[in-house]
Design a protein that fits this description.
Rossmann fold, 7-stranded mixed beta barrel, 10 helices, 10-stranded mixed beta sheet, Glucose Oxidase, domain 1
Length: 365
């Protein structure tokens, strides 16, 4: 195959709401974007992360220093577009090499109108986020340095309030989609679902009906589901009271919540959530299963957590994050309703928790 290369020469600035400005070299699209600045510690899977709808409204910083070395493939995606608002990396590989590579990361971001910045101190950025928490930011890539005004970028960053925007409305599909032809039907409430959730369900001989996040109880029941899955997604779960209310009315059907779906379930049972200082985003988070004492290494991507104090007495905490003791799993004490804060479908990440799909299948009517 022809050798793919990317040329990184454009000026770029990443401005934070606290007035800090990082200068680097631009790649991807010549554009300006605002977003909550977050970091991911994974050493691989950048294409899957870029296309994860849970990153909508966020500028993503990669802690691994070299990004883009295996390029972009036609299959390693979690949705059909890039959802991050911007991408910041230490070093961009300009000559990727992989047998499945079809284009460079630079070209991919150009096609999706997303700006990227490299050749900057990502360690310093991550230390700032760890010390002060995630914060609004603004990224600009331009042809000329004179086209970039740091003060205006800082002002745009300060004006952003991520927690007040309902990103689920932005990423949830508008139409119903169906997959597979198995004997049992699972309705997937799509709040920004990763595609591998659908793949894992179909691989277990299930018919999957993917409905918009704000589908009504009546619409969901019209498919006669054997079970309901509530997906991952972006933004503050406290804004999703309508979805939580609908879910509460469906407790006679087996339910499995993943990530944001876990948080929505908590709200459905009268609980609450709170924002983490810098979130959990990576593929190596240790999680303890309380009953068995087993520890799984998990893939995670979320900025909010369930408050253990408000959990209904009908539910129990099943899993705990061993890094900060936050709630990672819930289960009804009698009904087949459960949720986990992390990603059993991974992509990217370890496969320690794929057994949850089998557990869900066994619960189906």
């Amino acid at each position: 195959m022809a050798k793919l290369t990317a040329t990184v020469k454009k000026p770029a600035l990443l401005a934070l709401a606290d007035g800090t400005v990082f200068e680097g070299k631009g790649f991807g699209a010549n554009s300006i974007s605002e977003g909550e600045l977050v970091f991911n510690t994974s050493m691989f899977g950048y294409q899957e992360s870029l296309t994860d709808p849970s990153y909508a409204g966020q500028i993503l910083v990669a802690t691994y220093p070299l990004i883009g070395n295996y390029g972009i493939s036609k299959d390693a995606w979690e949705s059909k577009k890039v959802h991050v608002a911007g991408y910041a990396v230490r070093e961009l590989c300009e000559t990727p090499s992989h047998f499945e590579c079809i284009k460079t990361l630079d070209k991919y971001l150009q096609e999706n109108n997303v700006p990227g910045i490299c050749s900057l101190d990502t360690r310093s950025i991550v230390r700032k986020i760890r010390n002060f928490g995630v914060m609004p930011s603004c990224l600009q890539v331009a042809e000329r340095a004179d086209d970039i005004d740091a003060k205006s970028l800082i002002a745009r960053a300060k004006a952003l309030d991520y927690s007040k925007i309902d990103f689920v409305k932005k990423v949830s599909p508008k139409n119903v989609q169906e997959y597979g032809s198995g004997p049992k039907t699972v309705v997937l409430i799509d709040c920004g679902a990763k595609e591998n959730i659908v793949r894992e369900l179909v691989a277990r001989n299930l018919k999957v009906v993917r409905v918009p996040a704000f589908a009504s109880e009546k619409e969901i029941r019209s498919y006669s589901p054997s079970g309901i899955m509530v997906s991952n997604g972006p933004g503050d779960p406290a804004l999703l009271g309508e979805i939580a209310s609908t879910l509460r009315s469906l407790f006679d059907i087996p339910i499995f919540g993943i990530c944001l779906g876990h948080q929505i379930l908590a709200h459905a049972i009268g609980g609450s959530t709170y924002k983490l200082k810098f979130g959990h985003r990576g593929a190596n988070h240790p999680v303890l299963e309380v009953k068995t004492g087993k520890v799984a290494i998990t893939s995670q991507n979320h900025g909010y957590a369930v408050d253990e104090k408000g959990i209904s007495s009908d539910f129990e905490i099943t899993h705990i994050n061993l890094n900060d003791n936050t709630v990672e799993g819930l289960a009804h004490k009698k009904l087949p309703i459960f949720s986990i804060q992390y990603h059993p479908e991974a992509c990217p990440g370890p496969h320690d928790s794929k057994y949850f799909f089998e557990r869900f299948v066994k619960c189906l009517k």
